[in-house]
TrEMBL record:
Skewed-composition ranges (Acidic residues): 132-141
Lineage summary: Eukaryota, Metazoa, Chordata, Craniata, Vertebrata
An example Gene Ontology CC term for this record: cytoplasm
Annotated source species: Larimichthys crocea
Domain of life: Eukaryota
Domain Programmed cell death protein 2 C-terminal residues, every copy: 254-359
GO biological process: apoptotic process
Protein name in UniProt: Programmed cell death protein 2-like
Endpoints of the signal sequence: none
Annotated stretches, region: Disordered: 132-168
Length: 368
């Protein structure tokens, strides 16, 4: 049975305080900004390099995002070059996906325990309506750890043609050839780390409806009493969200950007949006051939689907560790597309590269 449209559920990530490594030991379950990446137990510690200047990339975001009908733990790691001339270039960003079975995690913790040779493969058609809950199921280590189903069963996908296998091997090799093992930690830029908390965007809509209802009651009161109390201000000092949006629209005259601003106006501090299988929120007009630009999965040759995007409010959080200086990262949004089948080989030690698309911000100071 096919899953219902994923667009109905959009999750937004918010900064939830600094992650102090002296007080809290993060793991692959942790959703965070910056810091060192927490790889799954079997995954090799690899640090990608900038495709433009060759410098090692800084770890920007880590998301724990298992799929509901999958037996795998699953992580996405985004990296970017903090160089002043690099952050806006697509070749200066990398996104890596890694997966691991619970049995493999247990075996890594207990070396004498053997790892099963086979595991039920993931079928995209078996996703249910909670497949995109981004770890929000109850019972997780930190409230986000749901979605890993060890007992999940799925029909085996058709084997790829020999030609597809050959292309896949070449593609994966070429994608990972500039990843380096054993990179000295001193050489890798580290950003200050912050927890990411999550909420359902539809909850914001309820708050907005309440505000509109209150404004309507106020206007009725003013009309009935013949007095002018003033407009409700839901943004504190400086005017309402609607007023700020109108000013932005007049300033830019860009329908795409105006739509972007209106969509995020209930919560402009959001740093990440997650809606696997949904539609990204572009900050400016995307290329007309956007669908063709999103390349096929380098591992299985299948198509990719939108999964998450980084938002402009994240930029002000990207500061170098033990330093007050901000990193040189500037962007409007970074849109991530991942393998629709989330393909994976049991026992693999190498993270797979996915596709990201970077848009510059037409007015970055609005978010600082």
């Amino acid at each position: 049975m096919a899953a219902p449209p994923a667009q109905e559920l959009t999750l937004i990530g918010l900064c939830d305080g600094e992650l102090d490594s002296k007080k809290y030991q993060s793991s692959y379950h942790t959703n965070k900004v910056g810091g060192q990446p927490d790889w799954l137990p079997l995954i090799s510690r690899r640090y990608p390099r900038c495709g433009r200047c060759g410098a090692p990339l800084a770890h920007v975001v880590q998301v724990y995002c298992p799929l509901d009908a999958s037996p795998y733990h699953r992580n996405l790691h985004l990296f970017a070059c903090p160089g002043a001339e690099c952050s806006a270039g697509p070749e200066c960003w990398r996104v890596l996906r890694s997966q691991c079975l619970e049995a493999e995690v247990a075996a890594a913790q207990t070396p004498s325990r053997s790892v099963p040779a086979q595991a039920p493969p993931l079928s995209a058609t078996d996703w249910c309506d909670t497949a995109d809950d981004w770890g929000m199921d109850e019972g997780g280590d930190d409230g986000w750890g749901g979605g890993v189903k060890e007992d999940s069963q799925a029909p085996a996908p058709e084997a790829p043609a020999p030609e597809a296998e050959a292309v896949s091997d070449i593609d994966v090799s070429s994608q990972l050839q500039d990843l380096t093992l054993g990179e000295s930690q001193e050489d890798v830029p580290v950003l200050r780390s912050f927890f990411i908390s999550v909420m359902d965007e539809s909850d914001l809509g309820e708050e907005e409806d309440d505000l509109q209802h209150a404004q309507r009651l106020l206007k009725e009161y003013e009309k009935r009493e013949g007095v002018k109390v003033g407009e409700l201000d839901d943004c504190g000092e400086g005017g309402s969200a609607e007023e700020k949006y109108e000013k932005t629209r007049a300033r830019h005259g860009d329908a795409i950007f105006s739509r972007f601003m209106k969509k995020i106006s209930p919560c402009p501090q959001q740093i990440l949006r997650y809606c696997r299988g949904g539609k990204p929120l572009f900050v400016s007009e995307p290329p007309p051939n956007m669908a063709q630009m999103v390349s096929a999965c380098g591992s299985c040759g299948g198509s990719r689907t939108f999964e998450l995007q980084l938002m402009p409010a994240l930029v002000s959080l990207l500061q170098r560790k033990d330093s007050g200086a901000e990193a040189e990262l500037e962007f409007g949004t970074v849109v991530v597309y991942t393998c629709r089948n989330s393909c994976w080989t049991v026992g693999s030690r190498s993270a797979l590269e996915e596709f990201c698309f970077v848009q510059a911000d037409p007015d970055q100071q609005l978010f600082k």
